[in-house]
Design goal:
single chain, alpha+beta, 39% helix, signal, FLA15/16/17/18, FAS1_dom_sf
Length: 466
C-alpha cells in the first residue's frame, strides 16, 4: 500500500501538468493567427508610409492626403514592399509650373493627381545597393506606367530625367524612400493637361449688350452736343411733361423681333465640338448630331435671342439607359428636352442660388416639367432619390448664350413615368429577342433609332445607319 505522502505528490504532479498544458503553444493556433494578421494588410508605426507622412517631404505628403490615396497606399504596403521616389519640396513649390499645379489641385482632375503620385511608387523594395545598371529592364509603377531606373556615371537616375539626390533617405522593413530632385510626370497626365489648357484657350463669344436708351427721348443715348443759343427745344412740350418709360435697360433682341444678332447654328456647332474634344460625352453629341433635330432647334432659338443651359449626362450615365426606355417614338427627344433649361446658368450661379434658397426649380423645354436643384456635398444636385444627378463637370462650355454643365446621371421628371412604362409587354419581349450588332462608331441611342427606321423601311435614307 502506498504511503499518503507519495499519493499527495502524484496528485500534485497531475494538477500541475493540467494547469500548464493550455500555456503550451499550439502550432495550428499560432499559424492561424499569423495568417489572420497578414490578411488584414494594415500598417504599423514602423511603416514606410508613416515615415513619409512624418518626414521633411511635406509637399508630397500633403498631395497624397489631398489625392485620397492613404487607403490605397496602406493596401499596397500591406501586400508587398514598396519604393517611393519623393521629390524635394522646392520641386513642388517653386520649380513646378503654377498653371500645372493649379490643374492638379482642381477637384475634377483628381484622377490625374492620383495617377501622378502613384507613378512615383514601385511595388518592390529597391535600395541604393540594388540599383540596376543602364541595361536593366523597366519597372512598372503603381500607376501601371513603365519607370526606368539606371545609372548615369555616378548618379542614379529615375525616369531618365530625375536624379536621386538622397538615396536611402528613409529605410523601413516594408519599404524605402529615395529623395529626387524633380517631379515625375506620366505622359497621360501631361496630355490631359495640354488638352484642358487648349480647351480653356478657346475664345468665347461674349453676349452683345443691350443698347442704352435715353428715357426722355426714346432714342439711343449719345454724347450731348452743344446746343446753339436760341435753338428750339429737342422735345415737344408734351414729351417733356409726360411720364417717361421705365428706367430699365432695353432688352436684348428677343423672339419674334426679326433681329438676327446671333449666329445660333455656329454657336451650337462650337459647343458640340467642345463636347467631343472634352471627352466622355460622345453619346450626348451623337444624339444632337445624328438622332434628333435638337441641334437645329437650339440654333434657331439662340439666333432669336434665347439663352440655354444644357445639363449633359456623361457616357456612363447614358450607358445605363435600357432599350425599353429608348424604344418609344420620340423618347430621346423627350429625355433631352428635360435636360434643356431656357436660362443662362453657370456652375457658380446655380451653386449660389441653391446655397441661398435651399431648393430652386428650373423650367425645362419639356413643358410643363421642371427640374429641381439642391445643394449637396459642396455641389449642385438635380432631382431627388435614385433619379438624382450631381453636377460633375462644371462649365464645359460657356459663351454667354449657351452653357453646358456635365452631370453623372440621366434625369426624368418625378411626376412622369419613364418612357419604358409606356412600351407594351409584347414589344418588350420582341425587343429582348432581337440581336443587335454593335458598331464601334455609333452610340447606343443611334443604334436604336436605326433599328426603328429599318422596321419602317426608311433605313436607306440615312447615311449614318449604313
Amino acid at each position: 500500500m502506498d504511503s499518503p505522502i507519495s499519493g499527495f505528490v502524484f496528485l500534485l504532479f497531475i494538477i500541475t501538468s493540467a494547469t500548464a498544458s493550455p500555456a503550451l503553444p499550439d502550432k495550428s493556433t499560432s499559424s492561424a493567427s499569423a495568417s489572420a494578421a497578414a490578411s488584414t494588410g494594415g500598417v504599423n508605426s514602423n511603416s514606410v508610409l508613416v515615415a513619409l507622412l512624418d518626414s521633411h517631404y511635406t509637399e508630397l505628403a500633403e498631395l497624397v492626403e489631398k489625392a485620397l490615396l492613404l487607403q490605397t497606399l496602406e493596401d499596397a504596403v500591406g501586400r508587398h514592399n514598396v519604393t517611393i521616389f519623393a521629390p524635394k519640396n522646392e520641386a513642388l513649390e517653386r520649380d513646378l509650373d503654377p498653371e500645372f499645379k493649379r490643374f492638379l489641385l482642381e477637384p475634377r482632375n483628381l484622377r490625374s493627381l492620383q495617377k501622378l503620385l502613384l507613378h512615383h511608387i514601385i511595388p518592390s523594395k529597391i535600395g541604393s545597393h540594388q540599383w540596376p545598371q543602364s541595361d536593366a529592364p523597366h519597372f512598372v509603377s503603381l500607376s501601371s506606367d513603365d519607370l526606368h531606373l539606371h545609372c548615369k556615371g555616378e548618379d542614379k537616375m529615375v525616369g531618365g530625367l530625375a536624379r536621386v539626390i538622397h538615396a536611402d533617405a528613409i529605410v523601413r522593413p516594408d519599404g524605402v524612400i529615395h529623395g529626387i530632385e524633380r517631379l515625375l510626370v506620366p505622359r497621360s497626365v501631361q496630355e490631359d493637361f495640354n488638352r484642358r489648357r487648349s480647351l480653356s484657350a478657346i475664345s468665347a463669344v461674349k453676349p452683345e449688350g443691350a443698347p442704352e436708351v435715353d428715357p426722355r427721348t426714346h432714342r439711343l443715348k449719345k454724347p450731348a452736343s452743344p446746343a446753339p443759343a436760341g435753338s428750339p427745344p429737342a422735345l415737344p412740350i408734351f414729351d417733356a411733361m409726360a411720364p417717361g418709360p421705365s428706367l430699365a435697360p432695353a432688352p436684348a433682341p428677343g423672339p419674334g423681333r426679326g433681329h438676327k444678332h446671333f449666329d445660333g447654328e455656329s454657336q451650337v456647332k462650337d459647343f458640340i465640338q467642345t463636347l467631343i474634344l472634352y471627352g466622355g460625352y460622345n453619346e450626348m453629341a451623337d444624339i444632337l448630331v445624328n438622332l434628333t433635330s435638337l441641334a437645329t432647334e437650339m440654333g434657331r432659338l439662340v439666333s432669336e435671342g434665347y439663352v440655354l443651359t444644357v445639363l449633359a449626362p456623361n457616357d456612363e450615365a447614358m450607358a445605363r439607359l435600357t432599350t425599353d426606355q429608348l424604344s418609344e417614338p420620340g423618347a430621346p427627344e423627350q429625355i433631352m428636352y428635360y435636360h434643356l433649361i431656357p436660362e443662362y446658368q453657370t456652375e457658380e450661379s446655380m451653386y449660389n442660388a441653391v446655397r441661398r434658397f435651399g431648393k430652386v426649380r428650373y423650367d425645362t423645354l419639356r413643358v410643363p416639367h421642371k427640374v429641381v436643384a439642391r445643394e449637396a456635398d459642396g455641389s449642385v444636385k438635380f432631382g431627388s432619390g435614385e433619379g438624382s444627378a450631381y453636377l460633375f463637370d462644371p462649365d464645359i462650355y460657356t459663351d454667354g448664350r449657351i452653357s453646358v454643365q456635365g452631370i453623372d446621371a440621366v434625369l426624368f421628371p418625378p411626376d412622369a413615368e419613364p418612357p419604358s412604362a409606356a412600351v407594351p409587354a409584347a414589344a418588350k419581349v420582341v425587343a429582348q429577342k432581337k440581336v443587335v450588332v454593335k458598331s464601334p462608331r455609333r452610340g447606343k441611342l443611334l443604334e436604336v433609332a436605326c433599328r426603328m427606321l429599318s422596321a419602317f423601311g426608311q433605313h436607306s435614307r440615312f447615311t449614318t445607319c449604313h
